[in-house]
Design a protein that fits this description.
Largest sheet: 3 strands, antiparallel
Helix content: under 10%
Order of helices and strands: EEEEEEEH
CATH architecture: Sandwich
Number of helices: 1
Number of strands: 7
Structural class: mainly beta
Length: about 140
């Protein structure tokens, strides 16, 4: 969860398998063995949050070399609470043998609404690179 400057609000606002919900419960991790799911209740998102960025990290302890070359199908989708798909972005299968983390997409405030932007931006520097861009501790 990021402020208007694109920085993480705080380390408490990072949601992942070891910290499964943001303060206030607006964002929650609901992942399974091989599929990650992040639930977002936009009505609970604090006004200080300008965007919610979705980043995927390939853990070398679980995925061989720890790069996206080990991933067969990678995508992000936005769906309603009833699981009705609103939009889906399939990440192209380009050479990804040095990509260790990737920003799949983001929800961002646009006036009084929220919009979604597909990104597919890879990081060769893993979580360290993501932490430097978003200014949080790893």
């Amino acid at each position: 969860m990021c402020d208007a400057g694109g920085r993480a609000i705080s380390n408490d606002h990072l949601v992942f398998f070891n910290q499964i919900a943001s303060p206030g419960g607006a964002v929650a991790f609901a992942g399974t063995d091989d599929q990650e799911q992040i639930d977002v209740d936009l009505s609970l998102v604090p006004d200080s949050v300008a965007k919610i960025t979705f980043i995927v990290y390939v853990d070398p302890d679980l995925r061989g070399p720890g790069t996206f070359s080990a991933i067969r199908s990678q995508y992000i989708r936005v769906a309603t609470a009833q699981n009705q798909e609103l939009v889906r972005f399939d990440i192209p299968q380009s050479p990804q043998d040095n990509i260790t983390a990737m920003m799949f997409g983001e929800l961002y405030r646009h006036r009084e609404d929220w919009k979604f932007r597909a990104l597919g931006q890879g990081y060769t520097t893993g979580l360290r690179g993501v932490a430097a861009d978003f200014r949080f501790d790893v």
